[in-house]
Amino acid sequence: MASSTLCNLLLEFSPSKEPILESGVIELLCSLTQSDSPALRVNGIWALMNMAFQADQKVKVEIVRALGTEQLFRLLSDPDANVLMKTLGLLRNLLSTRPHIDQIMSSHGKQIMQAVTLILEGEHSIEVKEQTLCILANIADGNTAKELIMTNDDMLQKIKYYMGHSNVKLQLAATFCVSNLIWNEEDGEGDTMTGSQERQDKLREMGFVDILHKLTQASDPNLCDRAKTAMQQYLA
Q: How far apart are CA 41 and CA 72, in angstroms?
């Protein structure tokens, strides 16, 4: 009950979030994630997920440091589906806003990409795979982080596979990854029009444009719109 209460107190809009952060709660929650009780592991990781939501970089770095990458990846192979979902939620919250994405991926990119690969290849629910593809879309939104996907042909083939999947949620998430990879907004932080052109050329050669073109005819309106948006970026 106490750890459930902490989960709620650590929500973004909670006025008690700051004082709790200063009381050393991160270490406490990280130790809960090592509990033998699945319910306590869920609550520990859930509270960390809430804490990481729209947090500043200092808090995110502290969570990664206190939890440790080994424990983070142990939780990503937890037998309890709730623990896995909340850990993916934590990872998704850590990997939001470009400078944070680039910083975390520059230190832990190799392990995160390995974890993503294992989950996408494994026997997991649609929800788990959708959340994992959303994490990949966040990585694709980084300036330097997106190169970890662009230089990984195996990962690009997986995105391509999920774009053609029978489940619309997975198609949407995979199409969002591609949208972020081809985005050519020059914002002076390492990405250039040339970089974006090279990415677009590589993705075209791998058959992504053909799939996007097919998806613009999809029966699902959201998928159709997302594919059209991605196609417009190609023409921009």
A: 12
